[in-house]
Amino acid sequence: NLLRQDITFHDQSDVGVLTSRLTSDCSSMSRILGMNINLLIRNVFKTIGGAAYLWFMSPRFFVQTLASLAVILLINVKYGQYSRKAATTEQEQLALGNQIATEVLTLIRTVRIFGTERSENTKYQKSLEHLIRIGTRQIVAYGMFLTSATFLVNATEALCLLYGGMCCLRGEITPEQLTSFLF
User: Fold this and answer.
1) Nearest to 94 by CA among 119, 120, 122, 129
2) How many Cβ atoms sit within 10 Å of the Cβ of residue 160?
3) At 139, is the pLDDT very low, low, confident or very high (cuts 50, 70, 90)?
4) Using one digit for the tens of pLDDT, what is the confidence trace for 1-53?
5) Chain-centre distance of CA 3, in angstroms?
6) Could you write out the DSSP letters of every residue in 92-149?
7) Residue 57, class by beta-carbon neighbours within 10 Å (0-12 exposed, 13-18 middle, 19+ buried)?
8) Which of 71, 96, 154, 172 could covalently link to 167 via disulfide, CB atoms 3.0 to 4.6 Å apart?
């Protein structure tokens, strides 16, 4: 994609930023592919198998579980969108920090002659502080995501147990069926 860009793009972009971005993108993709494809395949099979089993056990339980699953899926999608945007911002900020460091180290004689070590250090420090703020926001968002997803899963199990207990008392299902459903 970079090779297809207009020449003005290359005139305005620093080579260090572009190579840093390429390296970061490749690292992210290899990490994501290695971990997430495995999780995706496993979770798809678990979801399909679990949904079929729940439908077979009790269509009413299945509908109740499906409603909370839709909310969990919505939260996952929103968190995924935020996570991708934050990762892009983080990569751009990391590339900016690398660009500052590369320029200073490449032109170290000029920096020393003009005595701008402190201002260059301040620029680099601000870049790192911005990177820390981005990382902190990502950590907080991930914590909120995990908390909400865990709460919804547990709330769904509690509602199924409550509803299933009432169905057991009315004789609609057996306690063994309820236990199987909950597992």
Assistant:
1) 129
2) 19
3) very high
4) 777 788 887 777 777 777 777 777 777 777 776 667 777 788 788 878 878 88
5) 29
6) HHHHHHHHHHHHHHHTHHHHHHHT-HHHHHHHHHHHHHHHHHHHHHHHHHHHHHHHHH
7) middle
8) 172
Region 90-107 average pLDDT = 85
- Report how far residue 18's alpha carbon sits from residue 79's, in angstroms, rounded to the nearest whole number: 27
pTM of the model: 0.65
Whether the Cβ atoms of residue 90 and residue 134 lie closer than 8 Å to each other: yes
Q: Give the count of alpha carbons within 13 A of 47, CB side only.
A: 12
Cα–Cα dist 89/125, whole Å: 17
Higher-confidence position of 162 and 36: 162
Contacts of residue 138, Cβ cutoff 8 Å, sequence gap at least 6: 83, 86, 90
